[in-house]
Every structure is written in C-alpha cells, then in structure tokens.
C-alpha cells in the first residue's frame, strides 16, 4: 500500500500525511504479536488503515485540512484509534478532506483537492474524499471517515467503494474534532459490506468518554452476515426518485431493489414528503453547531497563530481571518446568525422542530419497512471546480444523505453501477436506529 501511495498519490492527493516510518515499525511489532498468537481473534491484525484527518492521532499531525490547525499533534488518541491499535491495526497515514468536514467535494482542503481515481478531472466527493479515493485507488485497504451529513456515504458512492455511517452513538466520537456534534459519526470506508462489518466490530460500543455513545448489543456484525434477506421489507420513498435525479443513478439504484427482491425481500413504494425540508434544516443545525464548536480555534490553544495583531481581540480576529477558509467562514457566519437573539426562534428553534418531524417520518416508515432504499447522491461525481462557485447548489446535492444524520439512523452506500461516462453510482440502504446489522446484511447480500 505504501508503494501504491508513492505511485499514485502525487496525482490523487488522498493523503495529507503518510506515516511510513511509524507504520513499518508498527507492522514489525504487530507481526510479533500475531506470531505469538496474541491477536488470533482479530481479523484486521496487521492490516493497514488510513484515517481521516479530523480524527485525533496521538503525536501524528491532525489538521482537519485547515490552515488554522497548522502542524497540531494531538496529545491523545481518539477512542476509535485506541480500539484499532488494540486490534493490531497499522495506521499508514492521515487522509485529505474538506476543511473541518464542511463540503461535498474535498475541494475546500487547505492541502489542495483530492482527485477521483476513476477520472482525475473529477471530484471524489466529500468531505471524506481522501478516505474514499484512497480505498478506491488501493492506497489503503480501508479507512475511517466521518459523516455529519453524508461525508462517508457520498464520497463512497462517487468513488465506487462501500461507506457506512453507523447509528448515532454506535461509535464513540471521543477525539473526533467536532463539526456538528449532534450529527457527527465516525464510520468505515472499505471495499465491501463484509469489510465494513469487520471494522464496525472493532470500533463500535459504549465509551464513557462520549456521553452520547450507546450500548450496542450485537453478536458481532461480521459473524451475523447471513446473506439471507428472505422476508426483508424494503421501502422506496417515491419523492427520492423524482426530478433532479440523474437517469443512470435512478436505474441503477432501483435495480438494487430488484436484486434483493430476487433474493426474497419485498419491495414497496411509499410517500416521504418531508424530504423537501431536509437540506435547509440540516444546514441551519449543522452551521449553528459548527459556529459554536469552532470558537475554540483562536490562535492560543492550537496550531496556527497570526503574526499581525495589536491586542488579544485582534489576535483572535487575525488568526481566524487568516486561518479559516471561505466555506468554513460562511458556515460560522450562517450559524452565528441563526443562533443570534431575534433570529434564534425563527431559524434554529424552527429547524429543531422540523428535525423532530423528520425523525417522526422515519419512525413511521420503520413500522412498515426494515430498510429504506434511495440513492446516495443525485448525480455521479462532478468535474473539479464546477461546484465551488455555487455553494447553494452544493448544499442541495446533499438531499439524500442529511436526513439520515438528522434522524440518527445507520446508512450504507454500496456501489451499484456506472453512468454513461463510466463513473460509479452508489445506492443507499438506511435502517432503523441500532439496526446497523440489518443494513450490513442487506448490503452484503446484494454484493
Ligand atoms: N456536505 C455536507 C456539509 O457540507 C456534509 C458534510 C459531512 O458529512 N461532514 O455539511
């Protein structure tokens, strides 16, 4: 994998940091542990992994692809990193992303855009574009990404790999640098659902360092993959297949339903009219939380500090002006506005109310269905540079992913075909809370 990185990453730019030396030393150490039988029950022992650069790695630069974090090296590991290490994983580097995970193309990175390995003139999706591109280009066998509003599932679909956002709370967020805390989840990006299940077995579970993490009762995701979907009830929300959906995407995603039907599942269309409100609701809530979370980057505690300042307030202002990119500043402004006196009720409070309605709509649907199927994105990967000038258009392209975060549900994107230019398409399978095993098995059966 290090050789693949050397051969391809000059163009793909999936990695911000490659930890070659540490990885080779760690691999020797893990090999000894494997030889002594210590890691015999760990299927991922010795397997390299790339980590999105917003997940804290002790002593390894963690930048969130932002200038403001400079060469910041966290003094501790995220919970998921400790878990991976215990399972014998070998971290080979930190992956590129949209700055602070804000974006859908991985073009807002301070370290330059990641390219889609299928066509390097196109974006890999975002914000975990580095993770999806690395797995797709075989620069890593699997990766950990984060998903606040689609950032694992959408790039997975653009790059022809499998990406999963677990149920909110299934995986500890301790050490994940926060974007929107009520929506953020860490999850796997891998070749297929079976690999995702193996990774989930390692990273999920209650963590006392994250008050929102949940007790996950399961027999092991990997072991419970049966390849059997007999009797599985699949719901297809009509409103997710209307105008604005690319025809190749529509055809390929609906074909997934057919395949699962041939394997014994039942398929039915239903109405989900709330879909019109998910994007505005998401962007109010995510920006509001981001504006609060990002207030800690003030030039005092972490990384970059401006050299041009007269007093303390000026230090904060110059550091933030010089350290944050355009998109991050836009979100901070939007979020601060939505939370300000006089506007809070009209925007933030309203958005929370609609969020409750979105959750309700899904709860209703899960009385009738086990899995809801729709696309991961309305199109395949767009050309580099074509989205940046129109942020609203980019926000609207998140239509199929953000509701899953707002409702706290597990969702997985699986490759299901190609458009007429040969670019990959992803279908999304979404489950009820803590039914991560159900979507993994449906995805596994399909694959
Ligand atoms: N594209 C969405 C955003 O920009 C989702 C990002 C994410 O999931 N981190 O907010």
Describe the protein.
The two termini are 24 Å apart. The relative contact order is 0.15. With 447 residues, this protein is of the alpha/beta class. It has helices at residues 2-12, 20-35, 79-86, 129-136, 153-159, 193-203, 247-262, 278-293, 312-323, 326-339, 345-368, 391-396, 402-406, 436-446, and strands spanning 15-18, 48-52, 90-95, 142-147, 162-165, 185-190, 233-237, 266-270, 371-375, 411-418, 424-431. It has a single domain (2-278, 349-446), classed as Amidase signature (AS) enzymes (Alpha-Beta Complex), CATH 3.90.1300.10. Helix 4 (129-136) runs parallel beside helix 5, helix 6 (193-203) runs antiparallel to helix 14 (436-446) and helix 8 (278-293) packs across helix 10 (326-339). The radius of gyration is 21 Å and the shape is globular. It is 37% helix and 14% strand. It has an 11-stranded mixed β-sheet with strand order 1-3-2-4-6-5-10-11-9-7-8, sandwiched between helices. Helix 7 (247-262) links the parallel strand 7 and strand 8. The chain contains 14 helices and 11 strands. The site of glutamine (GLN) has 13 residues, from loops.
């Amino acid at each position: 994998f290090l050789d693949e990185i050397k051969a391809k990453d000059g163009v793909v730019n999936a990695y911000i940091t490659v930890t070659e030396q540490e990885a080779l030393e760690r691999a020797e150490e893990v090999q000894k542990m494997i030889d002594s039988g210590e890691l015999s029950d760990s299927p991922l022992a010795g397997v390299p992994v790339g980590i999105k650069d917003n997940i804290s790695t002790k002593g390894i630069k963690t930048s969130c692809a932002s200038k403001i974090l400079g060469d910041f090296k966290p003094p501790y590991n995220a919970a998921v990193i400790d878990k991976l290490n215990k399972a014998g994983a070998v971290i080979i580097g930190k992956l590129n992303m949209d700055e602070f995970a804000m974006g859908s193309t991985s073009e807002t990175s301070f370290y330059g855009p990641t390219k889609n390995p299928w066509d390097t003139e196109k974006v890999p999706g975002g914000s975990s574009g580095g993770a999806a591109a690395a797995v797709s280009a075989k620069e890593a066998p699997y990766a950990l990404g984060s998903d606040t509003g689609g950032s694992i599932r959408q790039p997975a679909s653009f790059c022809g790999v499998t990406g999963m956002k677990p149920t909110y709370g299934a995986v500890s967020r301790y050490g994940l640098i926060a974007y929107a805390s009520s929506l953020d989840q860490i999850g796997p990006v891998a070749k297929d659902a079976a690999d995702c299940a193996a990774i989930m077995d390692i990273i999920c579970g209650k963590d006392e360092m994250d008050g929102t993490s949940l007790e996950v009762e399961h027999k092991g995701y990997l072991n419970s993959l049966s390849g059997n979907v007999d009797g599985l009830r699949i719901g297809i929300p009509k409103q997710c297949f209307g105008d604005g959906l690319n025809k190749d995407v529509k055809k390929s995603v609906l074909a997934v339903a057919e395949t699962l039907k041939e394997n014994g599942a039942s398929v039915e269309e239903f109405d989900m009219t709330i879909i019109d409100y998910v994007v505005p609701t998401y962007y109010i809530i995510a920006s509001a939380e981001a504006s609060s979370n990002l207030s800690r980057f003030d030039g005092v505690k972490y990384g970059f500090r401006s050299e041009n300042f007269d007093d303390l307030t000026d230090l904060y202002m110059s550091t933030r002006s010089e350290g944050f990119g355009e998109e991050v500043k836009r979100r901070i402004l939007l979020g601060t506005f939505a939370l300000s006196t006089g506007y809070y009720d009209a925007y933030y409070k309203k958005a929370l109310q609609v969020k409750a309605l979105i959750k309700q709509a899904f709860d209703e649907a899960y009385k009738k269905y086990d899995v809801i199927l729709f696309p991961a994105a309305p199109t395949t990967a767009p050309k580099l540079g074509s989205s940046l000038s129109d942020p609203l258009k980019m926000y609207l392209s998140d239509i199929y992913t953000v509701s899953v975060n707002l409702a706290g549900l597990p969702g997985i994107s699986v490759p299901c075909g190609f458009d007429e230019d040969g670019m990959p398409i992803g279908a999304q399978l979404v489950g009820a809370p803590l039914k991560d095993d159900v979507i993994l098995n449906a995805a596994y059966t399909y694959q």
